[in-house]
Structures are given as structure tokens and as C-alpha cells.
Amino acid sequence: MSTSLNIALLGNPNTGKTSVFNTLTGLSQKVGNYPGITVEKKEGVCKLNRTTKAHIIDLPGTYSLNASSMDESVVIELLLNKNSKDFPDVAVVVTDVENLKRNLLLFTQVKDLGIPTLLVINMADQMKRKGISIDIPLLEAKLDTKIALISTRENKGLDLLKNHLIDYRKLSTRPTIELEHIDQDYFENLKKTFPNQQLYKLWLVITQDVNFAKIDRNRVSDATDFKTQPESYLKRLQQKETVKRYQFINGILKETLIIDREAATDLRSKLDRILIHKFWGYVIFFVILMTIFQSIFDWSSIPQDFIDTTFASLSEQTKNKLPEGLFTNLLAEGIIPGLGGIVIFIPQIAFLFFFISLLEESGYMSRVVFLMDRGLRRFGLNGKSVIPLISGTACAIPAVMATRNIENWKERLITILVTPFTTCSARLPVYAILIALVIPEGSFFGLNYQGLMLMFLYLIGFGMALISAWILSKTLKIQSKSYFVVEMPNYKLPLIKNVGITVWEKTRTFVTEAGKIILAISILLWVLASYGPGKDFSNAEQIVSQNHVNLKGEALINKINAYKLEHSYIGILGKSIEPVITPLGYDWKIGIALISSFAAREVFVGTLATIYSVESDAEETIKSRMGSEVRADGKPLFDLASGISLMLFYAFAMQCMSTLAIVKKETNSWKWPTIQLFGMSLLAYVIAFSTYQILS
Amino acid sequence: MIPLDQLTKGEQATIETIETDQLPLKLIEMGCLPGNSISLIQKAPFNDPLYLKIDESHLAIRKETAQHIFVRLIK
User: Fold this and answer.
1) What mean pLDDT is predicted for residues A284-294?
2) Chain A partners of B58 at a C-beta cutoff of 8 Å?
3) Are A623 and A681 in contact (CB under 8 A)?
4) Which domains does chain B have, with CATH numbers?
5) Which of A242, A478, A483, A683 has the fewest beta carbons closer than 10 A?
């Protein structure tokens, strides 16, 4: 007969808890969200022996059961909710051998809830180097539990952990400290009022702002009315409780833990001396950033080109091999390019998360936060906003995903909202062609105008991100404790397995979650571009060949396609927005390009190529064709005024549905992507409008 | 007795009192309690945030938080 048990994995951040989880579950894990919130829920399955299967939940890292973030609330909500299907049969608290004292605080709290609790001491491989020795049997006796001393790095001690888990029923559930000793009157009184409830559980319910309405309304929740004392009194009690727990832990560790400080070699202070140096620290960070940037921008262009051509030829072949018809067209022009539009982001996402997880795993990320916090705080951001803002210059999608490690919700939200202002690589082809068209060649103190314009566009994107962050921080009314306590962990060599799993997970999430929306909108855009109402669209071939008798072959087909696009739904849409975009200096053809840019900004160039019925996508031909386009009054359509207005529109407008999709996913609501879409686009409109009016 | 933000780099001290109401509980739980040892490892440019070793924990806090912690220097 086989049995299955629920295991909850808990632990402070930086204890290698996730490594333990990865080692136990491998790729059997799945990552979702807790209902209604954006905290990641990671679960996996592990076979303990032939008959016992374990369902493991990797709870978010937490320093204690006193929740101060959404992540931490998840932990205590689960541990207090006996009726949850995930309620653990056994809790495993993972600790780091070097921070045992602090890590044990959480252990005593979990054990006091009356849940069988097992202690894992990780990073045993560090003991020798750090001069640490532990009397495990004595520590087991004092803490009244079982201990597995393990090393995920060297893959040691995991069998012992599994054996302890199988025998979980033998674990004691006796509390470690007596709350009555902290404040006799208060706790005796509490006990008398709720005689059937466990005291520590009551105490947690009283002191936490956890959403108990959502979990079952068992009798524990009545205790929230028991706030007979002011908040500051309760906080003092929490402090006393913490002191009490440390007294218990210190007493035990004095007998069981020996640290020979002479033996310790201190990698930390050596590396810190240079990595957070007031000058060199920034230089090193800058070099690391450049490397990351380079790889996202440059290295991924190789697989991206490959993906691009593969999907293009797939499209082509589908058209050639399958019989002509609606389904073939949908497949070849809607679905396949739509899928291509998702897959093309994979290299960038994978590269970014490869580097981010290296930085996280090594302990360097906390140093970056330390270096950057002061500067970014002025704008309502956080030291941790650096990575999203910088990686946004490659692509906003992985950048938005990278905001996950900003604990403060308000600062994280602001980072998500402003990241799309940074100049992503999809804007580059648009800028390139417009700059070549409207900015004169020539130079200013040896700097060429065209290069200066491009630099200006990058700077203005970054500047707008900071300005809007500042405005948002002043206007958004979000209750979010703004204190800043960042642990500076030890430096470690990253575990390749952890890095690999992170890259795999992030990429998979993007493809499955944001991918759905991207595919849907691509198909919609295709439908709008390939169908039109009325005779103009359906009889395009006839009309064009009658009006242009001289045209033949390729040229005729291009003319027909252009005519069709003009009379398709998207063409009609482009014409209908013409009155709105005329004051910006654009005509309906640019309007179509603006609308189809929602698939991806770089589509701008291709769309104009189709509209102008240019034979090839080669930049020169499109450029010269765009250059010869004139307005009704004979002036060129793309002049300095309309060109700059258009570039600024692209700089500020929210035109990327993929970004909107990922923002929806990360904020778990349509509210923020909607605000982003309208807010950014309105800003873009106003700026493009005033630019054109002033310059023309 | 001086507020923590006046400690200079490398100095060793003991936490004397803390203004409990002004500090996040998380910091207290990480060992910021009267009687524990504290030292300043590094200040970021503009003297904020502060990189500290409190008891056995290494952590960074902002200056505004450090003003609510009072320490006594160990000679």
C-alpha cells in the first residue's frame, strides 16, 4: 500500500532551501500562483521510498512567522489553516550551518504551532573551512526533534533526511517556549477566553495582519477581537518573545556548537572590500551590467535570427504545401507568425535569467542593492529596481519578470509600471530608419548628429522612467511598509542545477502564460489585416489591374496587396484614427503601422513596406520610398517635425501587447496594464503633438 | 551612548537600547536586541545605507532606521 504525505519546506532566505527543494523534486516541480495574489507557489513530488510519496511545498523564504510581506503571509496562512489540502503533515525547517542561531528562531516558532517539525542543517560542506563543529545527538535531544545534516552542494545527507521524513510520526510536537513566562496576565487571560485553542496560534492570529477571512472561519479567528492592548504593547510582547526564544537558542547552542574562529578564512571581507568599494564597486557593477546587456542584446540575436528565418520558412512551406484556403492562411499568416513572436523572446529571457540567478545565487545581488538603494530611493524605487531598469533596454518582458525579488509591493509595482519606458531593442529598427530619414548627416564637435539623436532617445527613455517613478511614488496610495532590511549573505559559488531550473521555469512561465495572450492578439491582427468589408477589398485584384494596366507580375501583386491592406479592417481603422494623428504629423498609413506595432514595435517597418508596396524589406528601398512620400501640399511626409514626433511617440507609447500580457500576469489584474496602456500612450500623444506643433 | 548612525567604519559596539515602536520586527528578530554586539562594516556613498554585523547576522539598513538604535562603544 502506498501512502502520501504533505511536506512544507520552510527556512530563512539564503539557507539553500530552494536547493533542497530542487534536489528532492528535480524537474517534477510546478510553479503557479497562490489564488488571488502574485506570490509564487512551488510544489513538487518526491518518492521517499517504495511505498511513500511526498508532496512538497517550497514556501517562500521567511525570517519568522511574523509576516511583513505578502510572501510571508502565505507561509503563516498555510500553517494556521488545518483544513487546507496542503496543510503539512510535517514541516521541514532548512537552516544554514553558519547562521544557525538566527535560523533556529523560525524553527522554534514552527515547532510551537504543534506541527511535527524536522530540522535540516544545510551547507555542511562549509563546516571545516569555517571551523564549525556541532554535537548533533545532543542538539537533537535539546531541540526535541530529528536533525539531518546535509550538503546539497555535495549531495550528502539526503537519504537521512528522507528516512527522518518517513518516520515523521515519531517527532515530538511539544512547544519550545512557554508564552506564559513572557507576560503571565495577558497570556493566562487569553488562555481562559479560548480554552480549546493552542496559545501560540492564538497569539499569531492576534498579532498578524493575515487575511483570515479567506481561510476557513474556524474559531481561531474570533481571537482577532482580543486586541485588548494597544499595538505598541503587543509589539513589546513580540520583542520579549523574541528575546525569550533567543535565550532558549543561545542556551542550547552554548552546549552543542563550537566555532573555531581562528580556522575561519574570511572570503566575505576580502570580496566586500572590492565589490562594494565606493568607487570600484560601481565600476565592477557597470562592467557586469555591460556584459549582461551585451549578451541579451548581441548573443541572443543569433538564435533570434535563426528563429525568425525558421518561422518564416515554415510559414512559406505551409502556404506551398497545403491546399489554398482559409485554414491555410490562418495557419501560415496568423498562427505560425504568432508562435514565432513568442518563441523569439526565449533567448533574451533565458540569458537574462541565467545572469540574474548567477548574481542571486552568488550573493552579489544584495551588494548591488546596497550600492544602488540611496540613488534610486529618491525616485520611489528600490535598490533592487536596478536590474529591471537596465534589462529593459533589451526587452521589457524579462525585465518585468525580474521585479519579483523586490519585496516591497509599492516599489515593485512602480518598477513594473516604468520599466517599459526604457528603450527596448524592438524600438531600435524604428529609430534607425527614422533617424536615417530625417536627421541630417554631419557632426557637432566630432559627434555625429544621428548618433547623438539615438543617444538622446535612450537617455530620454531612462529619464522618463525615473520621472514617472517619482510621480507614481507621490500619487499611488498603497499601504506598504517601506522599511529596508537586507541580509548580506555569504558569497557562494552558484549551483548550476539551481541556475538551470530558474532559467527553465522563467522561460516556461513566459511561453505558457504571456504566450497565450500574444498568440490571441497576433491572430486578431491578422484577421483585421486580411479581411475587409465591401467590394473594394473583395474585388481588389480586378480594381487594381483595371487602374494600372501597365503593371505586371511582382509589381502588380504588391500593388494589389497594398490596395487590400488599405481596404481591410485594419486599413479602415488606420483611416478612422487619421483625424486624431494628423496633428502629430502622421497620415493613415502611419496609423496602420502604429496599430500593427502592437504585435511588436519592429513590425512598423514591415507594415510600411507592405503599404507602400515595396518589393523587398531591404532598408534602403523602404527608406527611399518613405523619403519620396509627400503630403497633399507637396511637402515630404517624413520631415524633421513628423520624424521626431514619431520617434518620441515610439519612445513613450505603450505599444507592446507582450509587455501588457506579462504585466497582467505579474500584477494579477487588468488594472495596471490598462493604466499603463492609456497613461503611456496619452503621454506619448501629448509629447508627440507638442513636438510636431513646435517644429513644423 | 550614541545613535547607531554615528558609528564609524570598523568600530565595535554593544546595543544599549532600541526604540521598539520605530523598528521593523524583522530587524529585531534578526538579532537587533539590547546586549548584542554590533559593528559597522561599510557605509554606502552618502553614508546610506549602512552595512552592519549584528550579533552573527550581516545586514544592511537605511540610516533612518539606524537612528532608532542606540549603542555603546567597546573601547
Assistant:
1) 83
2) 268, 487-490
3) no
4) 2-73 (2.30.30.90)
5) A478
